[in-house]
Amino acid sequence: MTDLAPGTETLRERAVTSLVTARDRTTLLTECVDEPDLTAQHSPLMSPLVWDLAHIGNQEEQWLLRAVAGQEALRPEIDSLYDAFEHPRAERPRLPLLPPDEARRYAAEVRGRALDVLESAAFDGTRLTEAGFAFGMIAQHEQQHDETMLITHQLRKGPQALTAPDPDPVPLFAGPSEVLVPGGPFTMGTSTEPWALDNERPAHVREVAPFWIDTTPVTNAAYLAFVEDGGYRDPRWWTPEGWAHIRRNSITAPLFWRLDGGQWLRRRFGLTEVVPPDEPVLHVCWYEADAYARWAGRRLPTEAEWEKAARYDPAGDRSMRYPWGDADPGPEHANLGQRHLRPAPAGSYPAGASPLGVRQLIGDVWEWTASDFLPYPGFQAFPYREYSEVFFGSDYKVLRGGSFAVDPVACRGTFRNWDYPIRRQIFSGFRTARSEDV
Q: Is 25 annotated as a binding residue?
């Protein structure tokens, strides 16, 4: 490779590493179970694992081989099978999907060709190839489906198929329970992050009134106090929609929790264990998070408040890439990348704290915010409307910060996730806030 623009080799290496890391994880998630588990639908909310596997390859083919390299389609007849909008998840098991071995061969052939394309790609010219965007987009797409497949593993019945070391134990967090975030303007979103997706753009100024935010995510112990105080039986804490939802579905605790002989247990990737009191609460929907906040005399932070708490540096009066600064995440900063199969105890990763002292804003659990998923001023869909534009509106609530299941390539201080307020199978938790004068 010669005549590279400054920084091109670094971008190329980053793209290769990101693609290889994602594929290694996909392989782990699809080879740790037998073929029946790959082709089964473990929940109507999720695709069969084999659908995700071939969909990953098909998206990579469409964008890197066809759109970037201009190559002819390898398997045009399967495009519609793996179109997420054409076939809802509940219908996918009935489609003539590629069997596991064929799906693996297809994804491997696409990957080999994509790496050849990457080896000689020019990271300039079109917006799709500038700074290697298309390669970063595909790496993020695969990692997002890896998280989806990990959710499927959590939902599947049967013995444990995945293992990982637990996070390091830490002393019980004894710091302040909340932090004051100063009011005033800050820059939200980004116009410079090369692999940021369309809904993170453009950077714009937001005015935020001063507010208090929890230093750590809400823990299982704190949430259990809400449960044992009758929170699920008291309509005062719930929106009308939330109250109707939990009554209709007989919800009385976070998903995967059960009471056994006076002790709360949870199921986690095939294991049953005592609910750990110091971990951030996991598998709660937006309605549950909102109800807890009301019960506690607080509220969920808005998306803008969450991002200011996560990115604002008062000393430099600027927005950083991450709470700890502009450096990419390291293992000392956050619980990311499926290194562990659970959140770390509240108060972990002091090196990842924001300048104001807020902890665990990145990794561990996705955090529900009060905000609907809406476009930023000046939003432009790129490279296709179906990534985020079609989801804008009041049907979806924004989640921020990532979880232990998110790879660093798909997690930034500006990264936006969204889902229906009823969703609980996702790795979701929350922290609460209050206005300064409350």
A: no
Question: Is 91 labeled as ligand-binding?
Answer: yes
Three-point CA angle 338, 340, 342, nearest 5°: 105
Reported confidence tier of residue 124, pLDDT bands at 50, 70, 90: confident
87 is in an annotated binding site: no
- Does the annotation place 145 within a ligand binding site? yes
3-state SS of the chain: helix, strand, coil percent to 5?
Answer: 35, 15, 50
350, 334 contact by CB (below 8 A): no
Q: Do you know the residue count of the chain?
A: 438
User: Per residue in 130-162, pLDDT tens?
Assistant: 999 999 999 999 999 999 999 999 999 999 999
Residues carrying CATH 1.20.120.450, the chain:
8-155
Residue 3 backbone dihedrals phi, psi, to 5 degrees: 55, 45
Q: Which residues contact 202 (CB under 8 A, 6 or more apart)?
A: 189, 190, 191, 376, 377, 378, 379
User: Each residue of 260-314: pLDDT tens digit?
Assistant: 999 999 999 999 999 999 999 999 999 999 999 999 999 999 999 999 999 999 9
Q: Please give the average per-residue pLDDT across 385-406, as a whole number.
A: 97
Point out which residues pair with 273 in neighbouring strands: 266
CATH 3.90.1580.10 domain residues, the chain:
165-438
Residue 60 annotated as part of some ligand binding site? no
Q: How many CB atoms lie within 10 A of CB 299?
A: 17
| Domain 8-155 in this protein, CATH class | mainly alpha
Q: Output the pTM of the full model.
A: 0.96
Q: Does the annotation place 283 within a ligand binding site? A: no
Cα dihedral across residues 30, 32, 36, 41: positive or negative: negative
* Rounded alpha-carbon distances, angstroms, from residue 274 to 151, 279, 325: 20, 12, 36
89 marked as binding residue: yes
